[in-house]
Design brief:
By secondary structure, the chain is mainly α. The chain has ten helices and no strands. The longest helix has 32 residues.
């Protein structure tokens, strides 16, 4: 919704918000790991999956908004003007016009975000202490030891870990390919 709003409405802070999200893309969240750790500890979210969800949402927000913003700019304004002439409000235009048109971009954002979160190692390593709450990459790292590694177990785990992402890509491949092609037009 934010990308739609920034792309379609002109207000004084529009370009500053876009530049802010662009800076968010350029500066990794890992640079602020110590303040994030302190905030999570202060909020009681350290060693919780809720804390990880908040961190991942914050980390992927700039990418998502930036991709959807670029896609929303590519949609002709004639479509929204026609909907306004037909008596549709902005909420209806967003739901009935833009969301169906943005399916390829949403699919691209969903796949890229899912793959990066699924493979995330750094923040779970820093934020999660309990063995029962470890993510899959963090759990697989415990199979590797200093002097002896169970290679068969590690590769079996890696294969099993790849299956959900492969299924997601197969299910959403059409939207992903359409989204990637839309970006080149």
């Amino acid at each position: 919704m934010l990308a739609f709003y920034i792309a379609r409405f002109d207000f004084p802070w529009n370009k500053i918000i876009v530049i802010g999200f662009l800076i968010g893309l350029m500066v990794p969240l890992r640079f602020a790991v110590i303040p994030i750790f302190e905030m999570m500890r202060g909020a009681g979210l350290l060693d919780t999956l809720t804390g990880l969800v908040i961190i991942h949402a914050a980390e992927r927000l700039s990418f998502s908004v930036f991709v959807l913003y670029g896609f929303a700019l590519a949609v002709p304004r004639d479509i929204e003007e026609a909907a306004l002439m037909d008596g549709a409000g902005w909420g209806r235009i967003y739901r009935s016009v833009f969301l169906p048109l943005m399916r390829p971009a949403l699919g691209t954002v969903a796949i890229v975000t899912a793959v990066s979160i699924w493979n995330e190692f750094f923040f779970p390593l820093v934020m999660i202490r309990s063995e029962g709450k470890r993510t899959l990459p963090l759990g697989l790292s415990t199979v590797m030891a200093e002097f002896r590694t169970e290679w068969a177990l590690l590769f079996a785990g890696l294969t099993i870990a790849a299956i959900p992402i492969i299924i997601l890509f197969v299910m959403m491949s059409r939207q992903f390919i359409d989204g990637m092609v839309e970006g080149t037009r």
